[in-house]
Specification:
By secondary structure, this protein is α/β, with parallel strands linked by helices. The chain is built from 10 helices and 13 strands. The N and C termini lie far apart (about 50 Å).
């Protein structure tokens, strides 16, 4: 039986006792003497959803593996995740860790502060592809037929306005030579996807692949493309790249800390997350959530985020 995790859920938070993320016995200068004590995962959303799931799944797994003694979860929605980002930077402590995804680059691209370059990427412990779905009764069978339709009339796309789904859909259309005037975007939450498609309110919906897979399993939607660089086992469609569209994207599930954190505690945190990632417990979490099993950290992760930001920059300028 798993240990019962002691946690504190804070939706609105004004004060917090400072926490130390690592301890070190100064009488023994050995790396293995160091161990994580407490992490406060700062989540820029209400309980539930992707970032919250990432933080709580990671915290529970770290605790169960004995890699962490205490976990604090601070849910801090507001201001397009900037409220949570400012809260992390204010502490400037390795114990206060932002749970986020590749969308962390978006605010900076929109000229909002603090941007992602104010943080150090610690590690990405998984990811998800973006995907585009249609009704099973739709005449749209793949991205080629979607692009052909877009040449005749505007395409009604459902998803999250102002979020990555809108930005990446715009990037795909622009890359295929379709002007953004041919996209009519509408806010459609995941629970509304099937109904909106069936009612003909939208032609296609854009969301994370892991969100759409349960609906595919039940035959409630069809998939016409995804952002992997190649075919995904068990997914009945080709990637956009395999359909002749030069586009691929992994939405990484990642953790970040303040840019000014020293290397020693940062490296300890990174190594601990990597140990968690390699465990069977974490593989089960990834499988359950139908994420991509992948680990990136340090400079490699920073370069990936920079590249993703560059790929979205033109679309954001034209959208907003």
């Amino acid at each position: 039986m798993k240990k019962s995790l002691r946690f504190v859920l804070m939706i609105a938070l004004s004060t917090l006792v400072p926490l130390d993320v690592y301890s070190h016995d100064h009488d023994h200068d050995h790396d293995h003497e160091e161990s994580l004590q407490t992490i406060e995962f700062v989540i820029p959303s209400k309980p539930g959803g992707g970032w919250d799931n990432l933080a709580r799944s990671s915290g529970q797994t770290l605790y169960d593996l004995g890699l962490l003694k205490n976990v604090v979860y601070t849910n801090m929605p507001g201001d397009a995740s900037l409220k949570a980002q400012r809260y992390v930077l204010e502490a400037n402590k390795p114990s206060r860790v932002l749970a986020h995804s590749s969308s962390v680059v978006v605010n900076q691209l929109k000229g909002r502060s603090p941007g992602y370059e104010s943080f150090q990427p610690v590690a990405a412990v998984g990811g998800d592809y973006f995907a585009w779905f249609v009704s099973p009764k739709s005449p749209i069978s793949d991205f080629k037929s979607l692009m052909e339709l877009a040449k005749k009339r505007p395409i009604r796309v459902g998803g999250g306005v102002g979020r990555q789904s809108e930005i990446l859909t715009a990037s795909v259309f622009l890359g295929a030579g379709i002007p953004l005037s041919q996209i009519e975007y509408k806010v459609v939450r995941p629970k509304q996807m099937v109904k909106a498609l069936a009612a003909g309110e939208i032609d296609v919906v854009a969301y994370g692949l892991s969100i759409g897979l349960p609906y595919l399993d039940r035959g409630e939607m069809n998939i016409i493309g995804h952002s992997s660089k190649s075919t995904i086992k068990g997914v009945d469609t080709k990637s956009l790249r395999d359909q002749g569209i030069d586009f691929e994207f992994v939405n990484y599930r990642l953790f970040m800390v303040s840019k000014d954190i020293d290397e020693e505690p940062l490296e300890l945190l990174r190594d601990t997350l990597k140990e968690m990632y390699k465990s069977d417990d974490w593989k089960s979490v990834v499988s359950k959530n139908r994420w991509v099993y992948d680990f990136k950290s340090g400079d490699e992760l920073k370069q990936i985020l920079d590249k993703q930001a560059l790929s979205m920059a033109d679309s954001i300028k034209k959208l907003y």
